[in-house]
Write a structure and sequence with these properties.
The protein is mainly alpha-helical and 150 residues long. 71% of the residues lie in helices and 8% in strands. It has helices at 7-26, 33-45, 50-57, 61-73, 95-117, 121-149, and strands spanning 48-49, 77-81, 89-93. A hairpin with a 7-residue loop joins strand 2 (77-81) and strand 3 (89-93). The protein starts with 6 loop residues before the first helix and ends with a helix.
Length: 150
């Protein structure tokens, strides 16, 4: 690295580049990063109550309601009554959103392979371990800050 540029600087640059690429990909749609997180979660977990979505995504029930409202009006999800709990609503992906998310998963895998392909094969395993370690430490710091603020 050049003098003065730290690993954190590079990680921030990568984050900004990802944000820019996502904004480009969602241009012309009603999708935002937060809304895609909901769709991504529904792909992974399947149909869910709004309460379960809010817990998994660590957002407030009010926030998840707004996200689901926007996704429903955009035709990405549907809400149906819970079969056994009259107070709960099940959120499910629309068929077109399932197809879109399958394509997004394929694009995600291709980009991941392309980016990792830029790293010398002998360095890839160490890179993955290093990124995992950095992400784990950052999660710890964020959790500690949340606990201290509570």
């Amino acid at each position: 690295m050049t003098a003065g540029i730290t690993v954190l600087d590079r990680l921030l640059e990568v984050s900004e580049l990802f944000q820019s690429d996502m904004a480009r990909a969602f241009d012309g749609t009603s999708l935002t990063t937060a809304r895609v997180r909901v769709l991504w979660d529904l792909v992974a977990a399947g149909p869910s109550t709004q309460h379960a979505l809010a817990e998994r995504l660590e957002v407030s029930p009010r926030n998840i309601t707004g996200l689901v409202d926007a996704l429903e009006s955009g035709g990405y999800v549907t809400r149906t009554p819970h079969p056994t709990d009259r107070r709960s609503i099940i959120v499910s992906l629309e068929a077109s959103a399932e197809q879109m998310m399958r394509q997004m998963q394929a694009d995600h895998a291709a980009l991941s392979a392309d980016l990792l392909g830029a790293v010398d094969p002998a360095d890839r395993e160490a890179l993955v371990r290093g990124v995992d370690a950095i992400a784990g430490r950052l999660r710890e710091l964020v959790a500690a800050h949340r606990e201290a603020s509570a």
